[in-house]
């Protein structure tokens, strides 16, 4: 009975030692991925080392150039700062000019609307009554003229700066 039990245990142990083929495949994939990770870590370390070497070399060269050209840089700095200020001022001027042109166009259109409305009313004065609707439309057009005139003046002042 003992012998039979031992042979059953040996058989069971052999079955335990044999891996399921799916597990074997997964372990192979895990090993391959681990190898790839190790390879990538080595590449990263090499890249970091190269970067540090290049950074140190660039810093050293920059220091040499700063010592060599330091006074030139200090003398030229105001010029480049002035160029940047002039560029910004030019952009603001162009923006103000566009706003002025837009406001001027709106102002001209609003003035024409009022003039046409008044001319139509005067030409049909005998046929039409000057009622609330007509008054409201004329007030609205006049308000647009006033607002456009304000925007035009504001844009003109901004453009003059």
TrEMBL record:
One Pfam family per UniProt: SH3BP5
Where do the coiled-coil regions begin and end? 23-57
Please name the InterPro entries in this protein's record.
SH3BP5
What processes does the entry annotate via GO biological process terms?
intracellular signal transduction
Example GO CC term: the record gives: cytoplasm
Keyword flag Coiled coil: yes
Give the span(s) annotated as Disordered: 1-21
Alphabetically ordered keywords of this record: Coiled coil
Q: Which GO terms describe its molecular function?
A: protein kinase inhibitor activity
> What's this protein's family per the entry?
Belongs to the SH3BP5 family.
- For this entry, the protein name equals Sh3 domain-binding protein 5-like protein
């Amino acid at each position: 009975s003992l012998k039979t039990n031992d042979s059953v245990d040996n058989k069971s142990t052999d079955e335990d030692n044999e891996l399921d083929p799916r597990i074997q495949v997964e372990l192979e994939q895990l090993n391959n991925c681990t190898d790839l990770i190790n390879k990538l870590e080595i590449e990263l370390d090499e890249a970091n080392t190269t970067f540090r070497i290049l950074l140190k070399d660039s810093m050293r060269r920059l220091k040499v150039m700063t010592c060599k050209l330091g006074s030139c840089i200090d003398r030229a700095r105001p010029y480049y700062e002035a160029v940047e200020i002039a560029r910004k001022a030019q952009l603001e001027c162009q923006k103000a000019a566009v706003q002025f042109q837009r406001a001027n166009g709106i102002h001209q259109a609003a003035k024409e609307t009022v003039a046409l409305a008044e001319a139509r009313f005067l030409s049909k004065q005998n046929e039409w009554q000057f009622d609330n609707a007509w008054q409201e439309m004329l007030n609205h057009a006049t308000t647009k003229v006033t607002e456009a005139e304000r925007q035009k003046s504001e844009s003109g002042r901004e453009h003059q700066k």
